[in-house]
Design the sequence.
């Protein structure tokens, strides 16, 4: 099946990309709150969203935003304490969470305190079901899920050949990476599953930097191969996705 082309916007540089992310989030959130009185968003970690997160806490529009109607979740988390430098929660806490009036009870980090990783995954699912008011077996529909893409074509913690690529029953699952290239703190993860990602009203995939140019070209020009390029697991939601890419990452397109 030839690849359908995703809806893509190319921004001149990282700063413009971060500004565009902010604009998208504020608009999507306003629409959701106007319609349903609540905005549920899941964010990723890694380096790409850092500048956008900083704008969330610095931009005037963002600071006057109805944060009391926002519920914030994480797409995935490394299985480390929340104060670890590897923690996706810490990245958000340090860049915007401590500076915006988002009620503490509306912030839903992925638990990483249990010795049994699966217990944490189940706790996270319980929180999600409670906020979305859904029963076991039902899936949450996030208003917006913000994703990155790794140089190996992974997204969230859906890594090539990982168990997570096959999990279609859970809302969140544990991922055990056998990749020896990663530090120990990054090899055990909890992630939202791809059916949950694909159910989002809107998926924003953010890609930045020259080092992502080869993989971006590869995933867009290769027929879908979900296990080799887990970003292809999002193809069922391609019509509800927007790719925000800076020029260095888009240079081979
Ligand atoms: C994580 C992220 C992951 C990230 C990609 C891209 O926990 O690392 O959720 O999926 O989005 O690895 O990472 P960069 O933005 O650092 O390139």
Sequence:
């Amino acid at each position: 099946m030839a690849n359908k082309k995703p809806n893509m916007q190319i921004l001149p540089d990282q700063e413009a990309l971060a500004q565009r992310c902010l604009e998208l989030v504020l608009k999507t959130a306003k629409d959701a709150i106007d319609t349903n009185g609540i905005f549920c968003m899941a964010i990723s970690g890694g380096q790409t969203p850092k500048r956008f997160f900083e704008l969330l806490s610095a931009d005037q529009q963002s600071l006057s935003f109805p944060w009391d109607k926002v519920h914030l979740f994480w797409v995935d988390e490394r299985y480390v304490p929340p104060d670890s430098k590897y923690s996706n929660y810490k990245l958000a806490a340090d860049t915007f969470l401590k500076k915006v009036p988002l009620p503490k009870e509306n912030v839903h980090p992925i638990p990483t305190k249990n010795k049994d990783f699966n217990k944490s995954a189940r706790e996270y699912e319980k929180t999600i079901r409670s906020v979305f008011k859904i029963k076991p077996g039902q899936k949450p529909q996030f208003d917006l899920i913000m994703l990155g893409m790794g140089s190996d074509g992974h997204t969230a913690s859906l890594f090539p050949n990982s168990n997570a690529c096959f999990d279609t029953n859970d809302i969140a699952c544990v991922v055990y990476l056998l990749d020896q290239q990663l530090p120990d703190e990054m090899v055990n993860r909890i992630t939202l599953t791809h059916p949950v990602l694909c159910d989002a009203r809107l998926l924003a995939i953010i890609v930045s930097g020259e080092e992502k140019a080869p993989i971006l070209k590869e995933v867009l020009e290769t027929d879908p191969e979900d296990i080799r390029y887990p970003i292809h697991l999002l193809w069922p939601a391609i019509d509800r996705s927007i790719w925000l890419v800076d020029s260095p990452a888009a240079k081979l397109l």
